[in-house]
Write a structure and sequence with these properties.
Blueprint: E1 6-9, E2 13-19, E3 22-23, H1 31-51, H2 53-59, H3 78-91, H4 93-112, E4 133-137, E5 143-147, H5 149-153, E6 163-169, E7 190-192, H6 199-206, E8 212-213, H7 214-220, H8 228-232, E9 235-236, E10 251-257, E11 260-264, E12 269-272, E13 296-300, H9 311-317, E14 321-327, H10 339-345, E15 351-354, E16 359-362, E17 365-370, E18 386-391, E19 394-398, H11 407-417, E20 422-426, H12 434-438, H13 448-453, H14 461-471, E21 475-479, H15 488-491, H16 500-514, E22 518-521, E23 526-530
Parallel strand pairs: 12-13, 13-14, 14-15, 19-20, 20-21, 21-22
Antiparallel strand pairs: 1-8, 1-9, 2-3, 2-6, 4-5, 6-7, 10-11, 10-23, 11-12, 16-17, 17-18, 18-19
Helix pairs in contact: 1-2, 1-3, 1-4, 11-14, 14-16
Amino acid sequence: MWRNESLYLKPDVLLEPLFNQWYAWPYLIAPASAAMYVANQHLKLMQSFVAAPQTHQAALRNPALLGGPFLNCDPRHAPEVKSLWERTIKEQQPLLALAESIRALDQLLDEEALGLSLSPLYARVPEPLRGCVELVYDANHRPSARLIEGLLYQSQYYNPAAQSLLLWRAAQDARSFVFSTPRLPETRQLQLSLPFAHAGLDELFKMRRTPQRHGFIKEQLAIPDTDDELFADLFTDAPPPAPASYQGAGVRIRYFGHACLLIETAEVSLLCDPAISYGGAPDIERFTFADLPARLDYVLITHNHQDHCLLETLLQLRPQIGTLVVPKNNGGSLVDPSLKLALRQIGFRNVIELDEMESLEMSGGQIIGVPFLGEHADLGIRSKLAYWIAVKGQRLLCVADSENLEPKLYERIANVLGPADVLFVGMECDGAPLSWLYGALLTKPLSRKMDQTRRSNGSDFLQAQALVEQLSPTQVYVYAMGQEPWLTYLTSLRYTPTSRPIVESNQLIDACRQRGVTAERLYGQKEIHLPPRTSRKEDK
């Protein structure tokens, strides 16, 4: 059926990228961090579920435990989870050995690196890490190991065969939280055993706009005849509506949900932190893939969290992206793998790093990387950057989840860059504890007090208010709150009117409006138009 017909990909076709059947994010691409998550999270969660599936099921009846360390599986699926657990132990032996080596090396450095030369310790580095680490002290003689990530990607520890993709049609927004539960086979889902870098994926997602022969795409993706019915259901001969490209004289900003902003002029398009809805419930207006321009000149990633660097969306946009901009990385840190290396490894060709206060020229303006403090549980993570976008004489600042821990920072930024016209600020000020995201990477026990005080917080009212006072914007938008129903599978957030992020952001909105500043907490979709201005000297 349809072999020689030209077809389009249906707009509601959903993609989930998987690593060893777990939802993939950048920390499962980088070999060292992937090893730690497999060993210290995936295997332990599956083992716990197999031992007591009813306990996991009962825990998830409590809304407060959504997003916790519980598999969202029916107890009847315990044999399938056990099978994946056993297969993981067998097939992921290299990664498990790497994880054990990372733990053993940390212990070796704790016990033996006492300020004397590190040279004798190279012979005692565990074999999986030999030749892939540099042993160093900081200026206070505290030891650490720098991972040589480029070599790890060229070793057995990076295995694209563990990557696959699930495709199905999204009839609704609701999906279960993805980071604590492996994806088990379901009848209406098509699983492609292909690496993320496979060129056939680009051909598939071009079909959202450009028709292609059914037979061609089937061959590109090596779809077996047994999956013909499932595969055929992904396509239609009905062309999608053509999005009207923005041709105005000023700047158009479209909010797609969470931290995703499309910023357009007639000459250039920028997309920040892509997270795009497929359609879902018709009662919530939203922009979808169909509302994006054919080409995205720049895609900007603020930081390496799963709701901001979303591989599910990025892989689908890969054919449209001109330049992918990511924060400059420390290099070689287990808790801070290189975004540039990970994204290049999975098929993104033009990936560039931007450093703090470094600028990138674009048509009609520039993009400047702005320092981003907090939101990472006090870990030494450099892969985070806010973006100052100066275009058509307008100045926008997207700070994502930056926590204004040091008001002097934005005072200095304002002294250098001047006032902002439009500020987008995240206020998820009840962030998760250290262990929620980073626990699998830790090689030493974590006390409860340490875990609870070191959190991934965004700005609260006082911090956001100080930011507004320092930057003097005329428009303020609270975003990156994870409220949209098509995003709860990533965030597990369920706000009520008394939730602290809602209360604190309401305070900011009220305070701004009292000062005559336009202010709003974004939800669903929003379109903002800014008139052109004569460029100011600070923008040149």
